[in-house]
Amino acid sequence: MRMSPDDPGQPMDPDRVDLWDARLYSEGHPHALWRLLRAKAPVHRQELQDGRRFWSVVRYADVCRVLRDHEFFTSERGTLLTALGADDPAGGKMMAATDPPRHTALRESLGRVLSARAVEARREVLLQPVDRLLTPLLTGEISDLAVAAMNFPMDFIGTLMGLPQEDWPRLAKLTTMAIAPHDASFQEGSAPLTLLTVHHELFEYFSRQLSARGGTPTDDLIGHLMSMRIDGSPPDHETIVYNCYSLILGANVTTPHTITGLVQALMDHPAAFRTAAADPSLVPGCVEEGLRWSSPASHFMRYTTRDVEIGGHTLREGSALVAWLGSANRDEDVFADPYLFDIERRPNRHVAFGFGPHYCVGGALARISLRMLFERIFARVERFEPAGEVRHLASNFVAGVKSMPVRAVPRIGSW
Ligand code: HEM
């Protein structure tokens, strides 16, 4: 997805905005549209040709309100637009599709093993993926950063979940198919068929992984899910499988697009690259701005549990409501000069990891891995140069790229 609100070249009408169409995010100008909606129609209603409807909020304050308040806005019926109108079978089982208090019980123990302190203690697990991503780039040849970045989270989440390495390439592909079923590069048959294939294959896969453990928890994230207790009872097979799916999807479909988004921003702002390279203490701030800038998860959805008033509109009980994080992260009421890429932005209260009870449980893992990667990049790469056409992912959920040819110019004497 393009990261700035370039002139779309034609007048835009809030009543004709189509936030559903995956092509908007690969070929269009979503940031220009979101800016228009924030100004003119901050609570927006859209009806699809088949009669399904959803509301959208695009301002930071409204996005936070919706994500914070599970009593009015439930996650249990589904949280992604692609599944609009079909109740999520993982509701009440998968953490992301469960409301408190059950959500709290599910999340507590996973939150502990994925806390910043726990991740810091296992930095060695992240070192290999960093090197495996970076070393081939340092030959000075042209490489496709988008393709390389897609394997980066699979590399560490695969190790942390105890999954066989030979399965990683297919798992990485399946997770991208899950979030971009409309993209021709990832579609197998039609979009609905792609989703069916992905869900069937991934659920089967994790079910087999679980059975292979024969009830004995292993020393990895799957073992951790097996040994947790929810209200004193072990989770059932399905609950574990759904949460494996959620962990791998959460890691794989977001992290790569922060890498490509940040590298693109640093190519567009060479002075920022030089500043961060000269002062490693700026790397965490640079990563935070990269997260705000790229906002890889464009949206999360909720359903209203009762009639609710928002921005002068009454949403009837059972309405689908989409909180657009990508728009909130450019809200001019919250971020000074929101379209300026500023690695020293303070404060930077972006919502790239969400807000409220479902705030990304893998946030520390993502942050620490990205910091390690960019520390290493600034130490070893003099600069990146664009080396071909950037192709954007067609997905109304993930703001990302599927191809980004670059040349990394190695820093002399960095080896
Ligand atoms: C740059 C990287 C990442 C971004 C931008 C991101 C974004 C998000 C967002 C916005 C949410 C909130 C969902 C909601 O409100 O419904 C979320 C939740 C979640 N994320 Fe991430 N994520 C990232 C990395 C990861 C990683 C590395 C993992 C795996 C460890 C992960 C696993 C999850 C899970 C399981 C949830 C559900 C949490 C809950 O419901 O309590 N994410 N993520």
From TrEMBL:
Protein name: Cytochrome P450
InterPro entries associated with the record: Cyt_P450 (IPR001128), Cyt_P450_B (IPR002397), Cyt_P450_CS (IPR017972), Cyt_P450_sf (IPR036396)
Higher taxonomy: Bacteria, Bacillati, Actinomycetota, Actinomycetes, Kitasatosporales
SUPFAM superfamilies in the cross-refs: Cytochrome P450
Gene3D superfamilies: Cytochrome P450
Keyword Heme part of the UniProt annotation: yes
Organism: Streptomyces uncialis
Any GO BP annotation: cholesterol catabolic process
One MF term in the entry's GO annotations: heme binding
Family, as annotated: Belongs to the cytochrome P450 family.
Domain of life from the UniProt record: Bacteria
Assigned keywords, A-Z: Heme, Iron, Metal-binding, Monooxygenase, Oxidoreductase
